[in-house]
C-alpha cells in the first residue's frame, strides 16, 4: 500500500476530469505528502491535458504527474489502475455503462472509490452488489460525490445540527442563474446529459431495487410531507417538482441514520425554481416530453444523439467554455419543519412547531463544485479514516463524511452553508 499513489483521477480527459485536475494540484501542493496521478485510454490525450492544465493554472510543468493507461473495455487495465491507488476518483460516465467495472476492481484490489454519478438506479445496484464485500474489506465506495449530491446531502445535516429539536421534513428548492445575463453557449456537457437520459429510462426499476436493499421499509412517517404539484409560488418564483437524485440520496442517508444511530428519519421533497410562469410551463411540457421519449430504446437513442436539439442547446457534446461555467450561480434553499422538542416516534400527531430555513450557495456547480467536492472527499478518506463509518461499504456522502471536516473545507473554498431563519411557530 505504501507504494501506491494516494489518488488516481480516472477519466481525466473528459470535461469533469479536466476541471478536477486543478483542485488535485492545489490540495496536493498544500499537503506535500499527497501523491496523485491521472488515468484514461489515451496516453497522448493525458499528456495534452496536463500541458493544458499547467497553462490554465500558471505553473511551469506538470509532466512529472504519473499517467496510467486504463480502458473500461479492458478489465485487466482497470484492475491494474486500481491496484496503483489508495483512492480512485472516477469521472468516467455514464456510470450505468462504465461504472461497475471500476467499482468491482476497487473492491478486488482494496482501493477506495468515489464517483460523481447522478444515476440513482446505478447507486442502488452498486449498494446491492458490493456493500457487503466492501464492508468486509474496509473499503469505502462513495457515490454521488459531486454537485449531485454533496451540497444537498451535507446541507441537510448542516441544518439539522442547527435545528435544536427534531426535524420532520425538508422541502428543497434549487435555483440557478447566470451572472451578467444569459448566453447562447451550452451550459452542461454530454456526460451529464447521457447520465440524465439513462436515469429517466431506468426510473421504473428503482422501486424494485429499493425493496431488495431495504426489505423492511419504514412505516409511513407522520405528519406526512406531501408533494406540492403541479407548481406553487415561493419567494416570487415558481416552484416545480424536481425528480432529482439529491432527494433519493438524502433519504438513503437518513435511512442509514435511523437504522444505525436511532435518529428519526427526515422526509424530503425537491423542487426547482423558475423566474416566470411561462418558463415554468415550458419546462413542464418539455420535461414530460423528454421523460416519455426516455422510456424506450429508440427515444433514448434520439435524445443521446441530439442533445442540443432536445434541450435548446443547454446540454451539448461540445466543450463548455470556462467563462460560461464560472458565470453559473446556484442555491439550495432548505425549508425544514419539525418540533422544538425531541420526538422519537415515527407516527406523531403533535403539530410541528418549528421552522428553520437553510441555504447552500456558490458558483460553477456542475464542474467547479463537483471537482472540489470529489477531491476534498478523497482527501477526507485518506486523512480522516477514524471519522468515517466504523465499517467499509457503499455509502452516501452524508453517511461517509458527516463526522469529517469536508463541510468546513467546502466552506473555505467557496461553497456557502448558512442558516437564513430559525423560528418557533
From TrEMBL:
The protein's UniProt keywords, in alphabetical order, are: Membrane, Transmembrane, Transmembrane helix
Asked if the keyword Transmembrane helix belongs to this entry, the reply reads yes
- Gene3D superfamilies linked to this entry: NAD(P)-binding Rossmann-like Domain
InterPro entries, alphabetized: NAD(P)-bd_dom_sf (IPR036291), Saccharopine_DH-like_oxidrdct (IPR051276), Sacchrp_dh_NADP-bd (IPR005097)
Sorted alphabetically, the Gene Ontology cellular component annotations on this record are:
lipid droplet; mitochondrion; plasma membrane
Example GO biological process? glycolipid biosynthetic process
Similarity-based family: Belongs to the saccharopine dehydrogenase family.
State the protein's name: Saccharopine dehydrogenase NADP binding domain-containing protein
